[in-house]
Amino acid sequence: MGAIQQRSGGARRRALAEINVVPYIDVMLVLLIIFMVTAPLITPSLVKLPTVGAASRAPDTVVEVDLRVDHTLQVRLLDPKARPGSAALQPQDVTPAALAQTVGQIAAGNGSSLADMPVMIAADKNVKYDDVMKLLDRLKRAGVRRVGLAVAASGGR
């Protein structure tokens, strides 16, 4: 019994099993302050998408390129001053390879050049965005400087 009394009677130290979290909280607060100060200084890249209400009016004379879901293209001239029955006013089926040549012929027949004639892409709403961008790129590489996208006004606000 004497051995048991010595153990319990002596000043024995127990191991401390607690973690001091105060330094960790200090570090986290410093990091939070750093992020709060630097966040307003970083300018996010905003994409300004056009809206139908803010879109500019299309020119009166324009070459319209219709892109359909089945990847077929039709080209025609939209000109209110042209005489009815003109061949350029009739939709022409074209291949993507012959698109620039056809647009150039329509522009030349209207007394304009390929670079100066405005072209409007009217794509079906179910056409992939990638297909519209490929068509836009093809026209730009052919030398067309004025390309726009046709939109339909929804009527509601």
What can you see in these coordinates?
32% of the residues lie in helices and 15% in strands. A 5-stranded mixed β-sheet has the order 3-2-1-4-5, covered by helices on one side. It has 2 domains: 40 residues, no CATH class; 88 residues, Nucleotidyltransferase, domain 5. The protein has 4 helices and 5 strands. By secondary structure, it is α/β, with parallel strands linked by helices. The longest helix has 17 residues.
Q: Identify the strand order in the major beta sheet.
A: 3-2-1-4-5
What would CATH call the class of the largest domain?
Alpha Beta
Rg calculated over all Cα atoms:
35 Å
The sequence of SSEs as H and E is HHEEEHEHE
Counting DSSP H or I runs of 4 or more residues, the number of helices is: 4
The major beta sheet can be summarized as: 5 strands, mixed
CATH topology annotation of the largest domain: Nucleotidyltransferase, domain 5
Strand content: 5-15%
Poorly predicted tracts of residues:
none
State the CATH architecture of the largest domain.
Answer: 2-Layer Sandwich
Number of DSSP-assigned strands? 5
End-to-end distance: 93 Å
Which structural class matches the secondary elements? alpha/beta
| Overall number of domains | 2
What best-fitting shape do the alpha-carbon axes yield?
rod-shaped
| Helix percentage | 25-40%
- Average predicted local confidence, pLDDT: 78
Give the SSE map:
Blueprint: H1 2-9, H2 22-38, E1 62-67, E2 73-78, E3 92-94, H3 99-109, E4 119-123, H4 129-142, E5 147-149
Parallel strand pairs: 1-4, 4-5
Antiparallel strand pairs: 1-2, 2-3
